[in-house]
Design goal:
Length: about 375
């Protein structure tokens, strides 16, 4: 179906098994290996006058995605995926926040809600130039990638992170004490906008023959996304449950498949509340810079699996044996960095099949890689 991934159907079946809490021939695993230089294609040259021009050039970004996907070995369950990226605060830009672009893959916005007396002026703008650009970029990726790679959704980041962006995180922390009703009202409004916007892009991508995916590269033919709240590291359990958990629950109910993005040690205090959401399928634990080391977080992965959820385990290549020693194969989704070669990648696949061989699961055809 997608020529950049000839074994797409096997990968899709493996992912569906992961979502169902099952396993076919081995745990889900995603990693790339470098191609020899002689097999690589040149990336398009940027002649843009500014970082913003480069970010906003839909044709250039589509050609760049095409080249980059051709320049790595997409091993195991790694899929050829590209998605329109204007940064994690793009949803805030639809409400009037100015969007600034950096040179190194970052963008950010300025708060626009400076006084709660002005809250009625902060509304979703269906004519936002950033929304028009997002459509343009999605369409460009669909055109360039048709029958070659999968086009995904952007990084929406609604909910608490959206409100922190338009209000400023420090102000929002005080608002939950001083203006609780206003905070809840804004969150409810944005939730409705987000779900309508999600449905719009869901229809566009499905009509073009794509499964649904995004920056966390699982897929589903149904509604899939990555609920999150990075701002949660700044609030207590009580306030998280009062202000943000209800919206996260509704988002999981809105989606057919979901994996929660739990970001940083400060957010770990909320893990049990999130894992208790029946509709949530899996969790991604991101330990953050300075907190590296699989061995430090074994208890977190065990907690996720014990709750009956899938767990994305992010590791460096040398840590694979530690994972196999500490966790069951069933329920694990490995994201492995630093794989040095295609040969090393093939060895990983064989090792994962041996890991799973002791589990009870339905017979399946041998792995195609």
């Amino acid at each position: 179906m997608f020529t950049f991934k000839p074994d797409y159907e096997q990968v899709k079946a493996r992912m569906e098994a992961f979502w169902e809490g099952e396993i076919i021939d081995r745990p889900l695993a995603q990693f790339v290996a470098p191609k020899p230089p002689e097999e690589c294609v040149p990336e398009p040259v940027s002649g843009h006058a500014s970082a913003a021009d480069r970010w906003m050039d839909a044709a250039y970004q589509a050609e760049l995605a095409l080249a980059r996907l051709q320049n790595v070995e997409l091993m195991a369950d790694t899929l050829p995926i590209a998605w329109p990226n204007l940064g994690p605060e793009i949803f805030s830009a639809f409400y009037g926040c100015a969007l600034h672009f950096g040179d190194y893959g970052t963008s950010w916005t300025d708060p626009v809600l400076h006084d709660w007396a002005e809250a009625d002026l902060v509304r979703f703008d269906p004519h936002s130039p950033y929304l028009a650009k997002l459509h343009e970029m999605t369409d460009a990726l669909i055109a360039v990638g048709r029958d070659k790679f999968i086009v995904g959704m952007t990084d929406w980041h609604p909910g608490g992170d959206w409100l922190a962006a338009i209000r400023d995180p420090q102000n929002l922390a005080m608002d939950m004490i001083m203006h609780p009703d206003e905070v809840k009202g804004m969150l409810d409004m944005a939730e409705r906008d987000y779900m309508a916007l999600y449905d719009l892009f869901y229809a566009k991508l499905r009509a073009a023959g794509n499964p649904i995916t995004s920056w966390l590269t699982l897929i589903s033919d149904g509604k899939y996304y990555i609920p999150s709240n990075d701002f949660s590291c700044m609030v207590s359990n009580r306030m998280f449950r009062e202000f943000f958990l209800p919206g996260i629950i509704r988002e999981c109910q809105f989606l057919d498949r979901s994996i929660y993005h739990l970001d940083g040690p400060g957010a770990l205090q909320h893990i049990d509340d999130i894992l208790a959401i029946p509709e949530l399928g899996a969790m991604q634990w991101v330990f953050g810079a300075g907190n590296e080391g699989f061995h430090r977080w074994v208890h977190v992965y065990q907690r996720i699996l014990a709750a009956g959820k899938g767990a994305q385990v992010m590791i460096d290549y040398p840590e694979l044996d530690d994972v196999i020693a500490a966790l069951p194969a069933k329920g694990v989704y490995l994201a492995i960095s630093g794989v040095p070669s295609k040969e090393a990648g093939l060895d990983i696949i064989k090792k994962l099949e041996r890991w799973a061989a002791g589990n009870i699961f339905p017979a399946a055809a041998p792995s195609q890689g």
